[in-house]
Amino acid sequence: MNYTCLVVEDNLSTLTMIVNMLGNIGYQNVVTARNGREAWEKIQSSEAGIDIVLSDMLMPEEDGLQLLQRIRNSEEYWHLPFIMVTCVDDLDRIMSVTEEHIDAYLVKPVTEAVIRAKIYSAIKKTYDPDPYHQALFLGKKYLREGQYDSAIQSLEEARDLQPGQSATYFNLAQAMEKVGKMDEAEANYKRCKDCSNDLYVRSLDGLARVYQHRGDHASALEVLNKGIEISPNTADRHMDLAVELKAVGNTSGAKASMARALRLSRKEAQLPQRYIEACLDLGMDKEAESIMQRNMSGDMEDIVLLNQMGIVCRRRKEYERARKYYRRALEIAPDDEFLNYNYAVLLVDLKEYKSARSHLYHVLRQNPDSENALSLIIKLDKREAT
Questions:
Q1: Rounded Cα distance, 30 and 184, in Å
Q2: What was the pLDDT predicted at 95?
Q3: Residue 47 burial (CB count, 10 A)
């Protein structure tokens, strides 16, 4: 068989056993790695040409779950068949894995008969798909590319070919959510939840987003708490819970959930901007600063983050904090058009009109056609004339 298998296992005897089994059932092209980090490097190697991944769950440096997340979040390799090999009897860890799409589990001790069946099924679905799996693949591909109408069309075709498949409902719900069809999104997330084990928790997350969109905080809290009860180690879910608790006035509970989210995400190199905003909303300024510092990896990124922090603080009327961020950013890039304009807007809020004009004129020297700067100068002129 010409498919190349990547086996990821830190235990040498288990690794050797699986490689031998693969050879016995006809898979001669086998690449090995001892942890997720090494495996990811081999996946990205054009020479390896990996077609399917069999990975242990618990490994040093980077485990199977982290490797799976890397693959599913990548632009090039998101579709790779992935089989998780585990003897773990830890429900929390198992549920964490099932939040990402996997094609099969292999529970140790592995047998040749089981490994043959699991690999054959995973490879066939990906590389020789029946009409249902072909339509599902196209729907997921279009969804990732932002072609939501095409995604909906393909996923509805998949649903008609095989009704009752949780993956179809889940991806269809995501596509409906993206185009603002929240009633249809809710209905499909509920169908997924009712017929799924592996996508159950993620369908709860989807329902939470739908309820958040509607301002139905009680329902959002209910499904988020249910998701956390099943799978308590996902940082984003605790952060979303913090936002909802804050919305209903439970500030102490919100701070506790936010702190848990930060603990769970401490190994992440960077965090989304919404973590910073959530911390600021809760008065967790030190934590927000810490995230910002963590996200910085060079002068240009520094400018972007400092500018974002300035915007966030100005929106919350934390003017002096906003001033601090803009000044730090302008020390790095004194001629940046957007920094100077945003700082001018802040100075207008502070009624420091002369300084605001100075920064607006600086913008116009860089870009004489800046409509935003010209518009703000006209407003200042009118204000001074009255």
A1: 44
A2: 57
A3: 6
Residue 71 CA to residue 89 CA, distance in Å, equals 24
Tokens of 80: 């790779």
Nearest C-alpha neighbor of 34 from the set 13, 15, 17: 15
Q: Are the beta carbons of 234 and 96 closer than 8 angstroms?
A: yes
DSSP secondary structure letters along 18-86: HHHHHHHTT---EEEESSHHHHHHHHH-TTT---EEEEESS-SSS-HHHHHHHHHH-SSSTT--EEEEE
Quote the pLDDT of residue 90: 53
Q: pTM of the entire structure?
A: 0.77
Calculate the alpha carbon distances from 38 to 60, 67, 321 in Å.
11, 10, 43
The owner of tokens 């913008």 is: 363
Q: Count CB neighbours of 284 within 10 A.
A: 20
**Which domains, from first to last, does the chain contain?**
5-127 (3.40.50.2300), 129-223 (1.25.40.10)
Cβ atoms 220, 212 nearer than 8 A? yes
Residues of the chain with pLDDT under 50: 91
Alpha carbon 158 to its chain's center: 25
Q: Which helix (H) or strand (E) holds 104?
A: strand 104-107
What DSSP state is assigned to residue 108?
Answer: S
